[in-house]
Structure formats: C-alpha cells, structure tokens
Amino acid sequence: MKHILLLLFLGSITVAFSQDVKQKVNAIAERYSAVGVAYVVVKDGQIIHSDAVGYKDLEQKTQLSASQDLFRIASISKSFTATAWMQLVEANKISLDTDFGTLIGFPVRNPNFPDKVITLRMLLSHTSSINDKNGYFNLDAINPANNPDWKEGYNTYEPGTQYEYCNLNFNMAGAALERAVGVRFDTYIKQQILTPLGLNGGYCIDSLDKTAFANIYEYDRQKQRFEAQPAAYAARREELKSYKLGYTTPVFSPTGGMKISAEDLARYMIMHMGFGKSAGVRIIGDLASKIMQTPVNQESGYGLALRQNDNFIPGKTMVGHTGSAYGLYSAMFFHPEERFGIVAITNGCKQVFEDDEPVLLEEIANCLYQHFIYANK
Predict the structure, then answer these.
(1) Would you say 123 and 173 are in contact if contact means Cβ atoms under 8 Å apart?
(2) How many CA atoms within 13 Å lie on the side-chain side of 168?
(3) I want to staple 66 with a disulfide (CB 3.0 to 4.6 A). Which of 52, 170, 242, 256 is the partner?
(4) Model's pTM, two decimal places?
(5) Are residues 43 and 129 both part of a single domain?
(6) Lowest mean pLDDT among 19-23, 48-52, 130-134
(7) Averaged pLDDT for residues 262-281
(8) Residue 175 and residue 129 share a domain
(9) Are residues 224 and 313 in the same domain?
(10) Euclidean distance between CA atoms 1 and 135, whole angstroms
(11) How far, in Å, are 227, 228, 327, 349 from residue 219 at the CA level?
(12) 8 Å CB contact between 334 and 41
C-alpha cells in the first residue's frame, strides 16, 4: 500500500512539473502569437517529455498534439534524402565524389568552370555552386536540353569552394536517388527509413491520413490576421498520373516535403544522435553518420543535410536542421556527445528572426533545456 501511495505521489509531482513547463512554453508561444507549438525532449536515446500548446486548427480551435498530428516539416526533410544516399555509399554502390551529371542523366557543369566536376557530396552540402534563380520544383530549371537559361542556375564561383543554401540541390538529389534505386522516391524513403524505425509519415500527401495534418498558417501583416495555407498539403494525384521516375520527383519535394509528427521526428533524430542506430535498428553506419554531421564548409557549419548550430542552446554546439515553409517553422537539434536533443515545431506565428533563426523556437528550446537537461546534470 505504501509503495502504491509513493508511486501516486511521485506521479502527481511529475504531472505538476509538466504542467508548469507547459505554462512557461505557452507564455512564450503567446508572446509570439503562435497558432500552436509541438515540442519534444530527448535524452539518452529516449523521449523524456512531449507536449503541445495551441491549436491544430485555428478556426475549429482543435488542440494540437505532438504525437498524433503531422506537420510538413520543410527543410528538415533534406536529411532523409541524404540519409538514403549514405546507405548506398556504405554499400559501395555509389561514391560521394561521383560526377552528379552521371547520376541525374544530364550534364551538371558550372559554365564558368566547365572542367570542374560537381559531385554528389557538393549537392548534399550546398557547395555545388547551383542556385535557385530558375526555381526548384522542376529539373528543367537546370537541364541544358530543356532550358535556354540554364546557365542562370549557377553562381560565378568554383564548385566546392563556397556555400550557398539551395533547394534545387535536394530535389535533384531525390530524382537521382530514384534513378539509382529504380524505386519511387516516397516509397523508397518509407522502405529504407520510416518503416524500419516504426515512424508514421511520408512525402506522398495522398498516402497519408489528411485528418492528421496540422493546418499551417501564415500571418498576413497587412490584414493583421492568420490565413490558412492549404497549398502545404495539396493533393498530387493529377501530377502522379504522368510521373516520370527520376525526373518529376520534385512533386514530392525531397527538399522539404516530409510530413511527420513532432514525436516521430524526435525518434528519427534519436537515430542520428545514436550515429545511425536507434532501439537496436541501424539505418546507417557510425562512419556514414559522422560524415553527415561533419561540416563540409567550415564557415557555414553545414555537413550533409545536417549542420552545426551554436545559437539554438547557448554554449552548446548542436547538430540538426531547421525548416520554414508556408508559415511553419521547425527545428530539430541534438548534442551527439551529451546525448540530448530537442524538436520544436510551430504551425504559424508572428515570427521574429535573429541571425536567420526562429527566435520563438530557440526560446522554447532553452526553456525545455533548462528544465529537463540542465537541471538534471
């Protein structure tokens, strides 16, 4: 009886502590007029706290859930593409230094440096000298056979020497992945990463439960109100009818189209924090994981779809990625040595930026760090 009473007492303390944290997170979210925020804290390979404040649907006032609701996580999606490539690199089926033109099926050469090979590594690290000037949702943007303005898709510096963030890099990488494996991109990512880790999510909107999507809102400053962005989850059935494997892949947006819950994103993060392994399941090897986490360009801190960040938690060099699209902002960062990590996602807010980082998510991350990580050292 005493044992049961003790457990009940400890449980009540835990609930009270969680509610206190939630109130503090909610206060931060309200300060930035966030529609909703889902957040997850990970320590030593386990989710130790998960919750959400605000709304999944602002009009219906439906409460947001960190475990059930799916977000289009934007550019964090890039790391799934890079992870799939690293599996092939490990299997000696491809090299990171392969001429990317041989992978994508058309010449990929900066016209200012026609003899310089642009490699897979360069695309996955944003050092390819490719840019988004011609757009990034169609590979014609940079295909010399289909676009007379293809040269505009390259910067004037030598490939491999500088960093410039470019979404086209990863839509191209996703298309080339399809060509390498002969399987549609969304199906392959599910087979190779999501299913082995037991995660619910994917790139194909039409294969997911639409009722689980957290509505995304962009704040219109002229109208001074939030407006829903249904384009974030627009159906792709028509485009898929004429799908061309290895070319129309951007319809899935390998660069930003993953839909997943905050909790499942945290479980994916645990795999990277564990250098490719989580709960006994190995997705990539230790060396491949470390390559992804090691900056290719030192100034930017960017590796292969994972980057170092010194601002997310002051005094800590974290590894991960951010995302932003349609009014959503996402962050996934972990500390490989200290084995903690935080996922935070908002589906809309009056966003304030500092050094290109969403301050709202940084403030929430620091609140969570202080309560769950620092306080327990």
Answers:
(1) yes
(2) 23
(3) 52
(4) 0.94
(5) no
(6) 19-23
(7) 97
(8) yes
(9) yes
(10) 67
(11) 6, 9, 7, 7
(12) no
Query: Domain count of the chain?
Result: 2
CB 340 within 8 A of CB 42: yes
Same domain, 337 and 239: yes
Residue 120's Cβ-side half-sphere holds a number of Cα atoms within 13 Å equal to 24
Cα–Cα dist 97/88, whole Å = 13
The pair of structure tokens assigned to 267 is 């479980």
Q: Tokens standing for 98? A: 């392969």
- Same domain flag for 333 and 353: yes
Q: Vertex 75, ends 314 and 190: CA angle to 5°? A: 120
Residue 119 is encoded by which pair of tokens?
A: 């490699």
C-alpha span between 215 and 187 (Å, rounded): 24
What is the Cα–Cα distance from 160 to 196, expressed in whole angstroms? 34
pLDDT tens-place string over residues 342-353: 999 999 998 766
Range of the domain at 260: 2-77+183-376
Here the CATH number for the domain that contains residue 98 is 1.20.58
- Closest by CA position to 104, among listed 123, 78, 91: 123
Say whether both 226 and 372 belong to one domain: yes
The answer to whether the CB of 324 falls within 8 A of the CB of 74 is yes
HEC readout, the chain: CHHHHHHHHHHHHHHHHHHHHHHHHHHHHHHCCCCEEEEEEEECCEEEEEEEEEEEECCCCEECCCCCCEEECHHHHHHHHHHHHHHHHHCCCCCCCCEHHHHHCCCCCCCCCCCCCCEHHHHHCCCCCECCCCCCCCHHHCCCCCCCCHHHHECCCCCCCCCCCCHHHHHHHHHHHHHHHCCCHHHHHHHHHHHHHCCCEECCHHHCCHHHECCCEEEECCCCEEEECHHHHCCCHHHHHCCCCCCCHHHHCCCCCCEECHHHHHHHHHHHHCCCEECCEECCCHHHHHHHHCCCECCCCECCCCEEECCCCCCCCEEEEEEEECCEEEEEEEECCCCEEEEEEECCCCCCEECCEEHHHHHHHHHHHHHHHHHHC
The reply to whether 245 and 354 lie within a common domain is yes
